[in-house]
Structure formats: C-alpha cells, structure tokens
Design goal:
alpha/beta, seven-stranded parallel β-sheet, about 10% strand
C-alpha cells in the first residue's frame, strides 16, 4: 500500500517537485522528504485556501481521513470567501515547521493566487527566528528568499508591495506607532495569506480597552492586524488541539483542516511516547506552605493575555520565594543529579530543567555545580551544564555569566542539539520551551507551575525520535499532575495513552522484562557473578553462556519452522534487548537500582554472544544497547567480555588456527561455548579471506553456513558439529599454505582459483597452464589499475577487455570465459586497495 501510494505517477512527481528540500547542518548536505501526513495536509490546506478566498478550487483529492473522523468539525463545508482557511493540528515533533514551508511552496506556485504575499506570524522572537531559519533553508522551494522584519516601520515598508514576498514578523509589531490611535491600512489585496504559528495564542484582541488614567481607547494586536490587512485570509498551525470551549479560534481561523495527533505520530515512529514521574515524594515543601502553593498554582498560567500578567505578578512572586528557598533547591539539586546520572547510565542523551524564575535558574545551577564541580566551565563552548536566559546589565552580578547575546544562545542551541557535544543539562525559564528541537533530549525536569498549551508544548521537547530512545520522560518537582490531566482532556483517548504515562507502568514493564530473562537461568545460579572476583566472574560467565546456548538449542529442537528455530536461538539476546529498553525507561526508579547489576551481567553476556554471530557484527543499535554499561563499574570491566576469555582459552593467533588451539577447543567441557568460539574464529577468518581470495572465501563461507544450518536442524549433534568445524579449520589453514606448495604468491593463487573455479577448465587447460595465466593476469592488472576503476564504467570495460584478451591468447574455453572474467574482476577489486598501497615493482 505504501509503495503503491507513494509511486503513483502524479503523486511521486509532486513529492519530488513540491515536497523535497535540502539542508546543511554543518556536517554536510542532507535531503528531507515530506511524510504522508505533511503531504496530505498541504493538499487539503491549498484547497481550503482557494475556498476561503472564493477562488476556483482544484479537483478534490479523495483521502481516507478527515477531521470529522476524529469527531471534530472541519472547514470542508464553509462558505467560499469567508477568509477563514482553517486550523492544522499536527502534534509537536512531527515536522510542523517544514509542513508550513511545504504549504508556502504550494501557495507560491498556485496560478489562481497570482503570486501571493505570505505573512508568517509568531508571538515570540525566538520562535520567529526558528521558523525563519526553516523557511530560509527551503528558499528554493518557496522560490524566493524570505524576509524577517526588524521593526514596525520595516513591517509597513515590506507589506507595501504589489505582489510576492514571504514576510516574517511577530504579532507585537502590529501596534500603532507612538502618537497613533489606529493602525493604518497597508493593503486591500485579496491574495495575501497570513500564516499563524500556534494559532490559539495572542490572536483575539478585538475588544476595546479604556485606560482609566489616560482615557485612551486601545485594542489588541489581532484587531490592528485586520485593520492593516482587511482582505487577507488566515490559516492557523498548532501543535496542540483547540480547547473545546475556545470559540475565538474558530471565529478567527475556522475549524480543522487536518489532524495528525500524538497517537498517530507515535504509531508512525515520528515521535516517541512521553512518561511522567513525580518526585514530590522526595522533594517535600513545608506543610504550612502547601495550601498556599496548591491554591496559587491552580490559578497561575503563562497562557493568559498580556493584560492579565500584572494581576498574577504579586501572587507569582510569593510562590517563587517558597519554591526557590535555598533548602528546597539543595534537595532538588541532589535528587536531580542522582536521577540524571542514573538516566545517563542507561541511555545517552540530554535533559532540560524548567525553573520558575531567572533567580531560581541561577540558584539551582549553583547548587548542582556545588555537587558536580566538573560540570561547570566558564567558556560557553565547554561544560556539561548551562543556563539559557535573557537579561541586561541591570541584573545582579551573579547572573551576568549566564546572560548573553543572541550569538551565545545560538551557540548553546547548537551544542544542545549536537548529540556528541558534552553539554548535557540545560536550565531554562521560558526560552526553548516551544519550537526547540533537540532529538537527543530525553528528560525534562519541571519545577515551574505550568498548564494548558504551554505545558503540552514544553513536555514535547522530549518526544523527538533519536536512535534507540524508547520514550521521553517528564520529571515533576512542582506538582503538575492535575494540570497535565486537564490539558490532556482535550486530546483523544489514544493520545492520552501516549502522553503522561505513569512511571509505575514503566517499572511494571521493567519487572516483567527482567522476570523473562531471569527465568531463562532457572536452575543456574548467576547471582554469584555479581559479587565475585574478576577471575571468578569470568568463569561464571563462561558457564552462563554455555547454559544459554544449551537451552536455546533445546528450544530450537522443539520448533517446526526455520523462523521459529531462529527465534529460539536468539531468545536470550532478544529478551535482554527488551530488558535494556525497559531499563532505559525506568532507570532512575528504586526497582531499577536494585536490579542494575544483574541487568549489566545479562547485557555483557548478550554482547559476548553477539560477537559470535556469522554476520559482519552487531548493528549499531545492538551495540549501543550492549555497551550501555548501566551497572556499577565494579561488576564488569568497561570492555565487552570476549567469548574466548570466558571460555578460559588463551587468545590464539586467528590467522594460524594452530593444532594445539584446535585440540584445546575439542577438549573443552563447555561444548556449546566451544562451538560458538570456533564459529566466531572461522567466520572472522573467512571474512578476512574475502579481501584476498574471493573464491576461497565464498566456498568456505558456504560450507560454514551449511554446517551450522545442519546443526540448527539437529542433523548434527554439538560434538559432531564441533568436529566438522575443526576439520574446516584445518582446511582453511591448508588453503593458506597451498600457494607455497604450488610455487605461487598469495595474489597469484587467488587468480588461479578464479580461473579454476569451474573444474572443467582445469581438465581442459591443465594445472601448469592456469598458473601461467594467473601470473600474467596479476602482472597486467596491477600495471593498468587506476584509483577508481571499479566505479567507472569506462575503466571497468577496459579491464574486462584486458582479461578477455589474455584468456583468448591462452585458449581458455570460450563457453567459460564470461564467468571467469566476472570472477577475475571481482578478485582484482578485492586486491586493488592493497596494490595501490604497495604497487608492483
């Protein structure tokens, strides 16, 4: 369905032309292709735009979903010409900024709109900067360079145009200049479209307000915006749903155009679920302060209109003093440091702390640095912890090191977004809580009263997909649980199951995953390894690996299908991977702390078993989980356990596979472990031969895989397969010495094998004649090789002609020549890197 849908001719061409952008993050260029939700939302928004401006609509596209499918009103049946395009609700982290850019690209190309002017409005400078950066990256798509206005005068000048333009501004710039009582009309054009980010905020100031002191009547910014652009159409983009009681948004923008909610984003892998953990039990406030704080916090919000801010300021300062008390912040710092270090031990990444005031930001920073002095650095380009906040020279001296210019904030943003940068903990008050995208961020510590849309936008900082990050975690130090439930009430039941998930569920999942792995060891006491000496621990690990392999082989013998047998042979590895992911979700819990040594032991065993695989090695995700090192460093060394060390074997020279070593393997009491160790060595040796003799490598690889396959189907016992692999090891060793017996170099014997792969060629040509051809092939190919010959068709064709000419000259059988040429060229490609390093002669 996905392939058929994406590769339908018209849709595929539209994806390439209208929904593909290129960017550069400093590490090289990258390509971004729209997701299906962005593609369909833009198509719907374009039709809604033409309807709102009473222009001819394109033919409707049949889609499977509509806002009405969610039980919500849509703009589908709105009257033409009402200038209300509608609202697009796409959850945070699903690519809303790019969605807006794709939409702008469609508007610019639409012939009915006759080169429209687009005005992109936010209500904060940092959001304006972030969104402008996205559009600037998409300049080719929108066919022009976007403009970011700097002042009210600049805004008026930029809007005084006949057509075109993508203009970025904050809503606050739509205010009369000093001495003006009204905002002037800037244009009556109809092909002007206002694109508003976060449509539910700051867009409704239509009522008159009378200043009782001056007698001056004023209005909100939204009224002045309509005065300036009376015929513009309005579209709203939001990452959170419209409040059910919010009639203003519907009046200004209309109902929904398209919805992409949390549950769909998680299902698609566009975002990860968010877990919730309350730390109030550990960070208690004074009993006498609780009633005051509970009542006040219930009313406090930063979503209120600007006129309400003064009313709550005194109340806010009272609570700020209690929340920011020195004794309480010391407890918060101690708990946070311990919690975060536990998180980092299980899952690499970053965290953000949200504080109630700038004073508290600085005080908490000082308390954390007192506990971990090495986290601090005076240089903005160094250090593990930073504060991001604005300020001025009038602020206290103690704050000044944390106050900087926009350039400083940009540097810290770059560091926070870089998963390899040592900056891991950022303290903020209100910056970066909307629009800031750092995928490696997995934990949000909240110590600030928040509710509604502001709360939902803040917690979405940790819902970005990153590597093997299983989920984001919100840690509550202030008591936002009820506000979170109220905010989620506007979401679907499915969304509520993906956000604010109680940490108890994560702990329960961890307990279940641990019991599965622990049950595999029923009858084997692994607990002694957790407290044993290093040498004793290695011995127990060897016995544990033998136990796992034996149980998995027994389980595979009971299965009937190859797929089920494969799962049985990976039962422990898969169960431990699931345990590692569950541990990452609840790594800071008391239960996780109790079992972390055992989990680390299981992970080390899994890492050892992965190293024995017949592939080129574990995937990056497997390796990341295997090296998680979530345990006390005294349990195992930081190096992954080598299976040969666990077996008590002296590490051999793998290239030799000596008789003594093979005899030692054969006599090992742990037959399953011996088998895995030998299989690893043989697989490594076969892979190494791929770089020198592709024919031998292919032959030995096929034999190794066939033998293991017979063992997995119980056609061979453990003792029998072990003996067969020992015989194969003898043959591999003999093959390496064959060149000396034949009087050929290692490279010559590789070309000899390429010619003699078909036995009939040996019968026709004779052994000595093939040796001569092999020598001439090596000499001529080395002489004619170029750096990139294998990747240039003309150079490869030249080499093909050279090989064919030599084969014909010596009378190599014509019906075998094509196959021989392919094999010879493959052999030359394998050897050419070494030839370039040490050329002939």
């Amino acid at each position: 369905m996905l392939v058929a849908g994406a590769f339908e001719r018209a849709r595929f061409l539209a994806l390439l032309r209208d929904f593909t952008v290129f960017g550069n993050s400093g590490n090289g260029p990258f390509k971004i292709l729209a997701g299906y939700h962005q593609f369909h939302a833009v198509r719907r928004a374009l039709r809604a735009t033409l309807r709102a401006l009473a222009m001819r609509e394109s033919a409707p596209e049949t889609l499977r979903e509509d806002p009405e499918d969610y039980g919500l009103a849509s703009v589908r049946n709105y009257q033409p010409g009402d200038r209300r395009i509608g609202v697009i609700w796409h959850t945070q982290g699903s690519g809303k900024s790019l969605l807006m850019a794709f939409y702008a690209g469609q508007l610019v190309r639409c012939p009915e709109l006759a080169n429209p002017t687009l005005v992109v409005i936010t209500d904060r400078n940092d959001l304006d900067d972030q969104l402008f950066a996205t559009f600037a990256q998409c300049a080719d798509l929108i066919r022009q360079t976007p403009i970011q206005v700097e002042s009210r005068e600049d805004l008026r000048a930029q809007l005084n145009r006949a057509s075109g333009g993508v203009i970025f501004t904050t809503l606050q710039k739509f205010a009369p200049l000093a001495g003006e009582s009204a905002y002037p009309l800037l244009t009556e054009r109809r092909n002007l479209i206002v694109i508003v980010d976060e449509a539910h905020r700051s867009q409704y100031g239509f009522k008159a307000k009378l200043d009782s002191k001056t007698g001056v009547i004023s209005y909100g910014f939204a009224k002045y915006l309509r005065d300036a652009l009376p015929n513009a159409a309005f579209v709203g983009f939001t990452g959170t749903p419209i409040d059910s009681a919010d009639v203003n948004t519907r009046q200004v923008f209309g109902d929904y155009i398209d919805i992409y909610d949390i549950s769909r984003a998680v299902e698609d892998g566009a975002t990860v679920p968010i877990y919730y953990e309350s730390r109030l039990a550990r960070i208690e406030l004074p009993d006498e302060a609780k009633p005051t704080i509970d009542d006040a916090i219930a009313e406090l919000t930063e979503d209120e209109a600007e006129s309400e801010q003064e009313r709550i300021k005194r109340q806010w300062s009272t609570i700020e003093a209690l929340v920011g008390a020195k004794e309480r912040l010391a407890m918060v710092a101690e708990d946070l440091v311990r919690h975060f270090e536990d998180r980092l031990a299980a899952l690499e990444g970053k965290a953000m702390v949200v504080c109630m005031s700038r004073r508290i930001c600085v005080a908490l920073y000082d308390a954390i640095v007192a506990l971990r002095p090495d986290w601090h650095a005076d240089d903005d380009a160094a250090g593990r912890i930073k504060i991001v906040m604005t300020g001025s020279a009038a602020d206290p001296q103690a704050w000044q090191p944390h106050i900087g210019t926009k350039a400083r904030r940009d540097l810290l943003a770059k560091r926070a977004k870089d998963p390899n940068d040592p900056l891991q903990l950022v303290i903020v008050r209100d910056l970066w809580l909307t629009g800031f995208d750092a995928p490696a961020m997995h934990t949000l510590y909240i110590d600030k009263p928040m509710r509604g849309h502001g709360l939902m936008q803040a917690i979405a900082r940790v819902n970005r997909v990153f590597r093997d990050k299983p989920a984001g975690l919100v840690v509550d130090y202030i008591g936002i649980a009820q506000n979170l439930k109220r905010a989620l009430a506007e979401y679907s039941a499915a969304d509520q199951r993906q956000t604010g998930i109680d940490e108890a569920e994560a702990v329960a999942a961890l307990q279940e995953a641990f019991e599965v792995v622990d049950a595999i060891f029923h009858g084997f006491d692994y607990q002694g390894a957790l407290t044993a000496t290093p040498q004793a621990r290695l011995a127990i690990m060897a016995e544990a690996i033998e136990w796992i392999l034996a149980r998995q082989h027994e389980a595979a013998a009971r299965e009937k299908t190859p797929e089920a047998q494969k799962r049985a042979h990976r039962r422990f590895q898969d169960a431990t991977l699931a345990l590692s992911k569950a541990f990452a979700l609840a790594s800071a819990s008391d239960y996780a702390r109790e079992i972390r040594e055992a989990v680390g032991f299981f992970q080390t065993l899994r890492a050892a078993l992965i190293k024995t695989g017949t592939t080129s090695g574990p995937s990056k995700s497997e390796r990341d989980w295997a090296i998680a090192q979530i345990i006390d460093r005294a349990v195992v060394s930081t190096e992954i356990l080598d299976i040969l060390s666990a077996a008590g074997l002296r590490t051999p020279d793998i290239s030799i596979l000596s008789d003594d070593f093979l005899a030692e393997v054969a006599q090992m009491p742990q037959k399953n472990l011996a088998l895995e160790a030998l299989r690893k060595l043989l697989n490594d040796e076969v892979r190494s031969r791929t770089r020198t003799n592709v024919v031998q490598a292919r032959q030995f690889s096929e034999r190794l895989e066939a033998a293991i396959a017979r063992y997995h189907t119980n056609a061979l016992s453990t003792v029998e397969i072990l003996q067969e692999l020992i015989e194969l090891a003898h043959e591999i060793r003999a093959a390496k010495a064959r060149g000396q017996d034949e009087g050929l170099s290692e490279d010559e014997i590789a070309f000899y094998d390429a010619l003699a792969e078909n036995r009939s060629a040996v019968e026709v040509m004779g052994n000595d004649q093939l040796k001569v051809i092999a020598h001439e092939l090596l000499t001529d190919l080395q002489r004619n090789i170029t750096v990139d010959w294998a990747h240039r068709s003309s150079a490869r064709a030249k080499m093909r002609v050279l090989v064919k000419r030599i084969l014909r000259r010596y009378g190599y059988p014509p019906d075998l020549q094509d196959a021989a040429v392919r094999t010879v060229l493959a052999q030359a490609e394998a050897l050419s890197a070494r030839w370039r390093e040490a050329p002939a002669g």
